[in-house]
Design brief:
- The structure is a single chain.
- This protein is mainly β.
- It folds into 2 domains: 164 residues, Galactose-binding domain-like (Jelly Rolls); 347 residues, no CATH class.
- It has 2 helices and 28 strands.
- The longest helix is centred in the first third of the chain and has 25 residues.
């Protein structure tokens, strides 16, 4: 009998296998939507070619192994603006490190340039040790601070001060100084007529070790009275940046020498050590007196030997002039007072006695910053005022009578002019020389011109009595109180410096004040600006640690990041600390423990997050 019906129950498991089915007999239409489950698909059964060209996985999470996606599979430009990219903690730390170092270094440079002690950053602070206000002296130990160098170190400092004074032929400090043999630095009148038999030499100063800056003070010499008083010398001072072993030439102004009616040749006068010389070499009649010399500090060998022996020798070039105090002009005959040394401009000499109609145009003009003073009216001078040179006394023949001369100009950066001829009886006083404080290595400068016979700088605590006043008394201006003779007073030059001697002092701890953080920090980064004195071992001789509660500290591992600039000697040491395990707090603090080999610490930067 023929089969008319096969029921589901009539087909047993495995009764129909692949060999019984015809190719193409089962189509996708005959397979139910849920007939095939993922568990029924063997690994590797579905390959890339079995997938559609476009797959919408927006609602899915795709996890790939680390090596599945390479750089070559990515497009040149990836738009991740709407995505979140998560990097590992070590990757983030590596990216932040150079940025944090640069912020610390930038903050340090800004603090130095702006003269700040503690410089606040966002979530950070820089202390460049301009003073001790950023460190906790009660918490530190053996943390001696040297203000001269703005640094701490693990050795004991012993402050010292140096003072080296120069007169025309003596010194106060032989270890650094050599005296000039004579302040008369000019041996001829007008470049030809000799006054004396020899010429002097300049003094010298050598900067000792441990000194990077010296304070310098210069007083110019006073002019001498004839019947009119001589002008007082000027005063200049400043702070001069120096290096150990640097040398300077020192010129100290000599007082203006007097003239008398019996002179047949005026005393030697010079463009540097003394003011202008006499006028005519012929026998003198009514005479003026000599101007005082400049006092100044010059570069080594700035004064050529030719300048010491001959007026016509080469002049000193301006860049080798560090500081100058002008000399006062010599007094004239009949009451013309000598002008005082400058300031930036020397004082004009007086024309004649008070109460007369004699115009002041007969007085010599003061020197300026760019030219010597002009000679007073009706005067003739053998040598006019100029760079580092006062004018020789002006003279005027009186027919059959002896010549008359005005006072000569004071020495200076540019010297004063000579006094002119004011009549048969009167001659004008010489002008004062100018001072100079314009050298680029000179800072914190000041200058004070004299007034009449009174010298400048007499109120300075370093003023030496018996220097830089004009000769007096005279009736055209009050006599300076310290001057009781007719001759002026010599000038003076002084070097004053301070520093710190160091003796290794073993262990030292430098601890900062606390700095408030806006949040509870979990990590901190420290940058230390350190200078080797000996050869320290990082993390042994220099140990850095950080606290977030002001009490508990976590040690960082310091690494050498190179020099601040070039090979300046100051290194950048950096370290990072995980402070999340410390008790919660918002009082940030750093600490440095120094031992064994000596170092200097110039500043610390601390940042936190």
């Amino acid at each position: 009998m023929a089969l008319t019906k096969v029921t589901k129950g009539g087909i047993t498991n495995d009764a129909v296998d692949g060999d019984i089915l015809k190719d193409g007999a089962i189509t996708t239409a005959k397979i139910g939507a849920s007939a095939i489950e993922s568990s029924e698909i063997n690994d590797g059964t579905v390959i890339v070619d079995d997938l559609a060209s476009t797959l919408n996985l927006s609602s899915k999470t795709v996890t790939l192994p680390n090596t599945s996606v390479t750089a070559g599979m990515l497009s040149n430009t990836l738009d991740l603006s709407s995505k979140t990219v998560t990097l590992s903690g070590s990757t983030v730390a590596a990216l932040k490190q150079p940025i944090q170092d640069n912020i610390g270094l930038l903050g340090f440079k800004m603090a130095v340039n702006d003269g700040l002690t503690v410089f606040n950053l966002v979530d950070g602070v820089v202390d460049e040790f301009n003073d001790e206000s950023g460190t906790d002296e009660a918490e530190g130990s053996n943390d001696v601070y040297c203000a001269t160098e703005d640094s701490y170190a693990n050795y004991a400092y012993s402050p010292f001060s140096l003072s080296a004074g120069f007169t025309t032929s003596t010194i106060t400090e032989p270890d650094t100084s050599t005296a000039g043999t004579d302040a008369n630095l000019r041996c001829t009148q007008g470049g030809s007529v000799p006054y004396n038999t020899g010429c002097g030499t300049v003094g010298s100063y050598t900067v000792p070790c441990g000194i990077s800056s010296v304070n310098v003070y210069t007083w110019g010499a006073g002019g001498t009275k004839f019947s009119g008083p001589g002008g007082g010398g000027g005063f200049s001072s400043g702070s001069l940046a120096v290096t150990a072993g640097q040398t300077f030439d020192i010129v100290v102004g000599e007082y203006g020498h007097p003239q008398t009616s019996t002179d047949t040749g005026a005393p030697a006068k010079g463009p540097l050590g003394a003011g202008g010389g006499g006028g005519s070499p012929a026998p003198q009649g009514n005479l003026g007196s000599m101007g005082g010399g400049l006092s100044g500090i010059f570069g080594p060998n700035a004064i050529p030997l030719e300048s010491l022996t001959n007026n016509n020798g080469p002049q000193v070039s301006a860049p080798t002039v560090f500081i100058v105090a002008g000399g006062g002009g010599g007094g004239g005959h009949g009451g013309g007072l000598g002008g005082a040394g400058g300031g930036l401009t020397g004082q004009e000499g007086g024309g004649g006695p008070p109460g007369t109609s004699t115009p002041n145009s007969y007085g010599g003009d003061g020197g300026t910053q760019c030219a010597g003073g002009a000679t007073g009216s009706s005067g003739n001078t053998t040598e006019a005022a100029g760079f580092l040179r006062g004018a020789d006394a002006a003279w005027m023949p009186r027919g059959g009578n002896p010549n008359v001369t005005g006072g000569s100009g004071g020495g200076g950066y540019y010297g004063g002019g000579a006094g002119g001829y004011a009549g048969t009886t009167y001659t004008g006083g010489g002008g004062g020389g100018s001072s100079y404080v314009g050298h680029p290595q000179l800072t914190c400068t000041s200058n004070e011109g004299g007034s009449g016979g009174e010298g400048g700088g007499t109120a300075s605590p370093f003023y030496v009595a018996g220097t830089n006043e004009g000769g007096g008394p005279g009736f055209a201006a009050p006599s300076p109180p310290s001057c009781t003779t007719n001759v002026g007073e010599d000038g003076y030059v002084l070097f004053a410096a301070s520093g710190c001697n160091a003796t290794p002092g073993g262990s030292s701890t430098i601890t900062s004040e606390t700095f408030a953080s806006g949040t509870v920090a979990t990590s901190a980064r420290i940058v230390v600006f350190e200078e080797n004195v000996e050869t320290p071992t990082l993390n042994t001789d220099i140990i850095a640690s950080v606290s977030r509660d002001g009490t508990n500290f976590t040690t960082t591992t310091l690494s050498d990041s190179g020099y601040v600039t070039g090979s300046s000697g100051q290194r950048i040491l950096t370290g990072q600390a995980d402070i999340s395990g410390q008790p919660s707090g918002q009082s940030m603090r750093w600490k440095l423990a120094l031992a064994n080999n000596t170092v200097k610490i110039h500043g610390v930067s601390l940042q936190w997050s």
